[in-house]
């Protein structure tokens, strides 16, 4: 297989998640990976398990369109919009990490507006972190 245009498009986590779910269930007409494609099956499985712990599981094409429309006044790049969609930032620090030169491009009020728009338009995780995300407790006093 040859890559013709490697920069043709960037995919959101939701698009990757939907594609992998369709492949896994066989609803898109593709067959499940054969035994000769074990590595592909492993990568697909691992990717799905990771994506299931991200905000993309509650997203839809309508959610993405609504967010993109709501972000238009901020003059963000496509990559920045994608970062905001995929990561669903909840603090000003996260916004500053995702938007290049945000201190010069956005005021504090605009950053607060961005956070409000993101929390209103992108479904998030309301549940506490899972055990896998919790730090391990180590008893250092054990002799």
Describe the fold and architecture.
- By secondary structure, the protein is mainly alpha-helical.
- The chain has 2 domains: 13-56; 60-121, Growth Hormone, Chain: A (Up-down Bundle), CATH 1.20.1250.40.
- It has helices at residues 13-25, 38-51, 61-71, 78-87, 92-98, 102-105, 108-121.
- The longest helix has 14 residues, at 38-51.
- The chain is elongated, with a radius of gyration of 19 Å.
- The model is unreliable at 126-140 (pLDDT under 50).
Set out the fold topology:
Blueprint: H1 13-25, H2 38-51, H3 61-71, H4 78-87, H5 92-98, H6 102-105, H7 108-121
Helix pairs in contact: 1-2, 3-7
Family: Belongs to the eukaryotic RPC9 RNA polymerase subunit family.
Protein name: DNA-directed RNA polymerase III subunit RPC9
Pfam family, one: RNA_pol_Rpb4
Task: Based on the model shown, name its key terms.
143 residues; mainly alpha; Growth Hormone, Chain: A; 2 domains; 0% strand; elongated
Principal-axis shape? elongated
CATH class bucket of the largest domain: Mainly Alpha
CATH topology of the largest domain: Growth Hormone, Chain: A
Instruction: Report the uncertain regions.
Output: 126-140
The number of strands is 0
Helix content: 40-55%
- Kindly state the mean pLDDT as a whole number? 80
Describe this structure in a few short sentences.
Keywords: Cell membrane, DNA-directed RNA polymerase, Membrane, Nucleus, Transcription. Helices cover 51% and strands 0% of the residues.
């Amino acid at each position: 297989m040859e890559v013709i245009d490697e920069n043709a498009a960037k995919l959101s986590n939701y698009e990757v998640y939907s594609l992998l779910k369709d492949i896994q269930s066989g609803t898109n007409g593709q067959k499940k990976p054969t035994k000769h494609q074990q590595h592909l099956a492993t990568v697909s499985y691992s990717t799905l398990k990771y994506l299931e712990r991200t905000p993309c599981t509650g997203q839809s094409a309508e959610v993405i369109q609504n967010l993109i429309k709501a972000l238009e006044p901020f003059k963000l790049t496509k990559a920045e919009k994608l970062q905001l969609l995929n990561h669903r930032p909840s603090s000003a620090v996260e916004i500053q990490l995702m938007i290049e030169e945000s201190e010069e491009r956005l005021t504090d009020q605009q950053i607060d507006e961005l956070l409000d728009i993101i929390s209103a338009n992108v479904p998030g995780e309301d549940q506490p972190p899972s055990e896998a995300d919790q730090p391990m407790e180590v008893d250092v006093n054990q002799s």
